[in-house]
Amino acid sequence: MDPSRHKQRKRNGIGAEMQTYQIEIGQGSTQTDLLSVQKEMMEFGRYRVLPASRLLLCCGEEIPIGGRAFDLLVALLRMRGRLVDKNEIRNSVWPSIAVDESNIRFQIASLRRVLGPEGDLIKTIPGRGYLMADPDFVPDPPLTQLPMMPTSHSEFPTWLKGHYEPNSADEPYVAVVDDDATILDSLAGLIRCAGFRAETFLSTRAFLDSEQANPPICIVLDAWLPGQGGLNFQDKLLSAGAYVPIIFISGHADIAMSVRAIKNGATEFLTKPVRHEDLLNAITTAAVASVPPYIEQYQSL
Fold first, then answer.
1. Residue of 6, 80, 94, 230 with fewest CB within 10 Å of its CB?
2. Backbone φ and ψ of 210, nearest 5°
3. 3-state secondary structure of 186
4. Are residues 166 and 286 in the same domain?
5. Cβ(131)–Cβ(109) under 8 Å?
6. What is the pLDDT of residues 118-148, one digit of tens each?
C-alpha cells in the first residue's frame, strides 16, 4: 500500500474515511458513490468494516488483517445472528479452493486475535460451524411458562440477580447443573483441578434453592433436564434480570437449539463428551467478564 494512502486512512472518523475513499476511486466520484460506501459499511463493537474497499477500522484507524480473515469476517457479519456452517464459509472465503477444517479453525483463531475483546462475539457451535453474536440483540420474551419453574421475578433468589462482590469472604464458584451424577462429579473434578471452586446441583430447582452469597462465575448447564430444559431456564433468568453467563452442554443438541442459546447470550454451547480444553476456555472467558479481581489469575490458566 502507498504510505501516503495508509496515512490518510489512519485519520480518525468515518468522514475522513469517506474522503480517502473518494481519492482512491478518483476525483470524478459522486455523492452516490460515497453513499454506497456508507450503505455497505457494517459495524460491531468498536469496529467498522467496508467490504468493497477491504478496510477494517477501529475508532477510525485501519487495522491490519489478512485477506482470508477479512473475507471470513465479512461472511460472518452478513449472516450475523445465525449459524454459518462450514460449507457456507468455504464458499464465501475459498470459493475455488479445497480447504480442510483445520484451515478454517486457524483463520477463526487469527480473526479473534485481530479483534481483541470483540473476538468473543464469534461463537463456535461444535461440529456445525460458527456464529457472529449481535451485541445489540434483545432476546424475545420466553414463549413457554413451565409450572415447575418460578413464574414471578421475586421467586428468584436475590443473590442470583446481583454481581460478585470482591470483598465477599466466599470464593468465586462455578455452578454445575446436570441430572447425571456421574457427569456432574466428573465435570466438578475437572473444574476444581483447574483452580476453580465448583458447586454441583442435580436440578435447576436445587440450584435456585441453594443459599449463596454471590451469583456464580457462570453456570455449566445441561441443555436437557427432566421436566424442563436448560434453554427455558435461560429464558427465565433473562426475564428476571439475572444475567449469569451460561455454558450449555448437551448430548442431543440440534442447530436451532445451539443458535437460540448463543443468541440469548450463552458463553458457549458444547456437545458431550465435552472436551476439557473447550470447557475450561469457556469458563475462563466467563471468569474474566464476571470477576474483575481474578482476571490475571484466570487468564493464566
1. 6
2. -70, 155
3. helix
4. yes
5. no
6. 888 888 877 778 888 765 544 444 433 333 4
Question: Do 47 and 58 touch, CB atoms closer than 8 A?
Answer: yes
pLDDT score, position 145: 36
One domain, residues 54 and 170: no
pLDDT lower than 70: segments of the chain: 1-40, 134-155, 162-170, 227-228, 253-254, 290-301
Does residue 104 form part of some domain?
Answer: yes
Could you give the CA distance from residue 117 to residue 58 in angstroms, rounded to a whole number? 12
Span 223-272, pLDDT tens digits: 888 766 788 889 888 888 888 899 999 877 667 788 888 888 888 998 88
| Final residue before a domain boundary, out of 62, 77, 112 | 62
Q: Could you tell me the three cell numbers for 120?
A: 468473543
In this structure, is residue 259 part of a structural domain?
yes
pTM: 0.53
Would residue 23 count as lying in a domain?
yes
Sign of the CA dihedral running 175, 181, 187, 192: positive
Number of domains in the chain: 3
Q: How far apart are CA 146 and CA 134, in angstroms?
A: 28
H helical segments located in the chain: 3-9, 14-25, 31-40, 67-78, 86-93, 101-115, 181-193, 204-209, 230-239, 255-263, 276-290, 295-299
Q: Residues near 172 by Cβ (< 8 Å), separated by ≥ 6? A: 164, 196, 197, 214, 216, 217, 287, 290, 291, 294
Give the separation between CA 54 and CA 42, rounded to whole angstroms. Answer: 12
Backbone angles phi, psi at 270, to 5 degrees: -115, 145
